[in-house]
Write a structure and sequence with these properties.
Layout (H helix, E strand, L loop, with lengths): L3 H8 L12 E6 L6 E9 L2 E9 L3 H14 L4 H6 L2 H8 L8 H15 L13 H4 L17
Antiparallel strand pairs: 1-2, 2-3
Helix pairs in contact: 1-2, 2-5, 4-5
Protein backbone atom coordinates (compact mmCIF):
# COMPACT_ATOMS: atom_id res chain seq x y z
CA UNK A 1 0.00 0.00 0.00
CA UNK A 2 1.27 3.46 -0.88
CA UNK A 3 1.23 6.46 1.43
CA UNK A 4 -1.00 9.43 0.58
CA UNK A 5 2.06 11.36 -0.56
CA UNK A 6 3.10 8.62 -2.99
CA UNK A 7 -0.47 8.27 -4.25
CA UNK A 8 -0.61 12.02 -5.02
CA UNK A 9 2.69 11.84 -6.89
CA UNK A 10 1.59 8.81 -8.91
CA UNK A 11 -1.68 10.52 -9.85
CA UNK A 12 0.30 13.39 -11.37
CA UNK A 13 4.04 12.70 -11.61
CA UNK A 14 6.16 15.75 -12.32
CA UNK A 15 9.67 16.48 -13.54
CA UNK A 16 9.73 13.73 -16.15
CA UNK A 17 12.84 13.85 -18.32
CA UNK A 18 14.83 14.25 -20.34
CA UNK A 19 15.53 17.84 -19.35
CA UNK A 20 16.44 20.20 -22.17
CA UNK A 21 19.54 22.23 -21.39
CA UNK A 22 20.70 19.87 -18.65
CA UNK A 23 24.26 20.54 -17.53
CA UNK A 24 24.65 17.35 -15.51
CA UNK A 25 23.34 13.80 -15.80
CA UNK A 26 23.70 10.83 -13.50
CA UNK A 27 22.53 7.26 -13.80
CA UNK A 28 22.11 4.48 -11.26
CA UNK A 29 21.64 0.99 -12.68
CA UNK A 30 21.68 0.17 -16.38
CA UNK A 31 18.86 1.65 -18.48
CA UNK A 32 17.09 -1.08 -20.44
CA UNK A 33 18.49 -3.85 -18.25
CA UNK A 34 16.65 -3.86 -14.93
CA UNK A 35 16.02 -1.16 -12.35
CA UNK A 36 17.57 2.20 -13.13
CA UNK A 37 17.17 5.90 -12.42
CA UNK A 38 18.46 8.71 -14.63
CA UNK A 39 18.56 12.25 -13.22
CA UNK A 40 19.18 15.42 -15.22
CA UNK A 41 20.11 18.71 -13.56
CA UNK A 42 20.50 22.29 -14.70
CA UNK A 43 23.06 23.84 -12.39
CA UNK A 44 23.88 27.55 -12.50
CA UNK A 45 26.66 28.57 -10.15
CA UNK A 46 25.98 26.56 -7.01
CA UNK A 47 22.20 26.32 -7.46
CA UNK A 48 20.17 23.55 -9.07
CA UNK A 49 17.71 25.49 -11.24
CA UNK A 50 15.77 22.44 -12.43
CA UNK A 51 15.82 18.67 -12.25
CA UNK A 52 14.13 15.81 -14.08
CA UNK A 53 14.20 12.02 -14.01
CA UNK A 54 13.47 8.89 -15.99
CA UNK A 55 13.11 5.42 -14.50
CA UNK A 56 12.07 1.88 -15.38
CA UNK A 57 8.33 2.25 -14.76
CA UNK A 58 7.94 0.92 -11.24
CA UNK A 59 5.47 3.14 -9.30
CA UNK A 60 7.82 3.33 -6.30
CA UNK A 61 10.72 4.41 -8.53
CA UNK A 62 8.51 7.00 -10.24
CA UNK A 63 7.54 8.45 -6.86
CA UNK A 64 11.19 8.56 -5.76
CA UNK A 65 12.37 10.23 -8.97
CA UNK A 66 9.57 12.78 -8.99
CA UNK A 67 10.02 13.75 -5.33
CA UNK A 68 13.81 13.89 -5.64
CA UNK A 69 13.62 16.22 -8.63
CA UNK A 70 11.11 18.40 -6.77
CA UNK A 71 13.34 18.55 -3.68
CA UNK A 72 16.46 19.43 -5.67
CA UNK A 73 14.97 22.28 -7.68
CA UNK A 74 16.09 25.60 -6.19
CA UNK A 75 18.51 24.03 -3.71
CA UNK A 76 22.24 24.51 -3.56
CA UNK A 77 24.54 21.74 -4.71
CA UNK A 78 25.84 21.53 -1.13
CA UNK A 79 22.33 20.89 0.24
CA UNK A 80 21.59 18.39 -2.54
CA UNK A 81 24.63 16.33 -1.54
CA UNK A 82 23.12 15.94 1.96
CA UNK A 83 19.92 14.25 0.74
CA UNK A 84 19.83 10.56 1.66
CA UNK A 85 17.63 7.61 0.75
CA UNK A 86 16.39 7.56 4.36
CA UNK A 87 15.34 11.23 4.00
CA UNK A 88 13.49 10.43 0.80
CA UNK A 89 11.68 7.47 2.35
CA UNK A 90 10.64 9.63 5.31
CA UNK A 91 9.33 12.42 3.05
CA UNK A 92 7.40 9.92 0.94
CA UNK A 93 5.88 8.26 3.99
CA UNK A 94 7.61 4.98 3.18
CA UNK A 95 7.40 2.53 0.29
CA UNK A 96 6.05 -1.02 0.11
CA UNK A 97 8.32 -3.71 1.52
CA UNK A 98 11.04 -4.63 -0.95
CA UNK A 99 10.79 -1.34 -2.86
CA UNK A 100 13.02 0.77 -0.59
CA UNK A 101 15.89 0.32 -3.08
CA UNK A 102 14.08 2.79 -5.38
CA UNK A 103 15.07 5.61 -3.01
CA UNK A 104 18.68 4.43 -3.23
CA UNK A 105 18.53 4.52 -7.04
CA UNK A 106 17.38 8.15 -6.98
CA UNK A 107 20.08 9.24 -4.54
CA UNK A 108 22.87 7.38 -6.35
CA UNK A 109 21.79 9.02 -9.63
CA UNK A 110 21.84 12.47 -7.98
CA UNK A 111 25.28 11.92 -6.50
CA UNK A 112 26.55 10.66 -9.86
CA UNK A 113 25.21 13.79 -11.57
CA UNK A 114 26.77 16.05 -8.95
CA UNK A 115 30.12 14.28 -9.35
CA UNK A 116 30.30 15.36 -12.99
CA UNK A 117 31.75 18.67 -14.18
CA UNK A 118 29.78 20.65 -16.75
CA UNK A 119 30.82 20.40 -20.36
CA UNK A 120 33.05 23.36 -21.36
CA UNK A 121 30.83 24.08 -24.38
CA UNK A 122 27.81 24.92 -22.21
CA UNK A 123 24.57 23.13 -21.35
CA UNK A 124 24.69 19.54 -22.50
CA UNK A 125 24.10 16.24 -20.82
CA UNK A 126 26.81 13.98 -19.55
CA UNK A 127 26.49 10.36 -18.62
CA UNK A 128 28.04 9.59 -15.27
CA UNK A 129 30.77 7.04 -14.90
CA UNK A 130 28.26 5.11 -12.75
CA UNK A 131 26.32 4.36 -15.93
CA UNK A 132 29.43 3.23 -17.75
CA UNK A 133 30.71 0.87 -15.07
CA UNK A 134 29.00 -2.11 -13.53
CA UNK A 135 28.77 -2.70 -9.81
CA UNK A 136 32.21 -4.32 -9.83
CA UNK A 137 33.85 -1.42 -11.69
CA UNK A 138 33.76 -3.25 -15.02
CA UNK A 139 32.22 -1.78 -18.15
CA UNK A 140 28.48 -2.28 -18.08
CA UNK A 141 26.74 -4.06 -20.89
CA UNK A 142 24.14 -1.73 -22.34
CA UNK A 143 20.77 -3.39 -22.36
CA UNK A 144 18.16 -4.26 -24.89
CA UNK A 145 18.30 -1.78 -27.70
CA UNK A 146 19.40 1.19 -25.63
CA UNK A 147 22.35 3.06 -27.04
CA UNK A 148 25.04 4.30 -24.64
CA UNK A 149 25.05 8.07 -24.26
Amino acid sequence: MFSETVQRILANPSNLGPLEGATHEGVAGVPGDGPYMRMWLVIEGETIRSAAFKTFGCPSATACGSMTARLLTGRTVEKARLLTAADLLLILGGLPEGKEFCADLAIVAVHAALAENPMPSGPQTQTSRVAEEGAQGEPAAHGRGEEPT
